[in-house]
């Protein structure tokens, strides 16, 4: 009986230990499942971060040619601005020259008109025989008396 009681006590202790081990095992299994879930979440986050990093790398590789293109276009823009400035300066210079030439042309046109009128007047007087009243005759002008005096006529 004593042996049976001892055996029953041992069996009871063994069952308690097993129960404790089973509850501890259950706890560890739950912890393991929880850690697996956390690990899965962390893996998903890591995958998303890697995906974002790849997108950033792609954007950086796309930006490099764009930056080069931007620098090239900015240089072309500066060159065109310099050309426009030179053209504007040349345009101002040509406008000034044109104004001076226009003024000179008007003066010459006035002089030509006056000379043309004087020429017409002289031609009219020459054809009508009226050379007695020369206007503004200068000593070097063709109206001077030595040019219009008639040569002596010899009697025959």
Question: Shape from CA axes?
Answer: rod-shaped
**Overall number of strands:** 0
Query: What profile does the largest beta sheet have?
Result: none
Proportion of beta-strand residues: under 5%
Helix content: over 70%
Return residue spans where pLDDT drops below 50 for at least 5 consecutive residues: 143-151
Concise overview:
The chain has two helices and no strands. The chain has 156 residues and is mostly helical.
Q: Keyphrases for this structure?
A:
Microtubule associated scaffold protein 1; 0% strand; mainly alpha; MTUS1/CCDC69; coiled coil; single chain; 156 residues; nucleus; 2 helices; 84% helix; microtubule binding; rod-shaped
Could you walk me through the main structural features you see in this protein, from its secondary elements to its overall organization?
The structure is a single chain. With 156 residues, this protein is an all-alpha fold. It has one domain (2-126). The protein is 84% helix and 0% strand. It contains 2 helices and no strands. The longest helix has 127 residues, at 2-128. It is rod-shaped. 0% of the residues are buried.
